Amino acid sequence: MTLISQVTREYLEVNESGYLINSSHPRSTVSQDVVDSIRLLRETLGLSYTVLAIVFSLPRETCGKYCRYEIRSQQADRWKTIYKTKTYERET
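and the corresponding structure tokens:
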């Protein structure tokens, strides 16, 4: 058997204090694309929080906090690179 190693890179968003933010945070369940879509629909079409909650299957209060920039409002100061190695066994 032959061992094959694969190295991949993952880029994580970090704020000025060095903490993981937005979709890079380990407890994040909603992608940044969804948050941006919610904000865009609210600002351009004026959809209510209830309609946004139904469309995206999220709690109404969470949609409101996204739109009011109370949560997920930080901008990335820099990107942190994480290298991950996977090893596979291959039969020859």
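(Above: one complete record from the training split.) Helices lie at 32-45, 49-56, 60-67.
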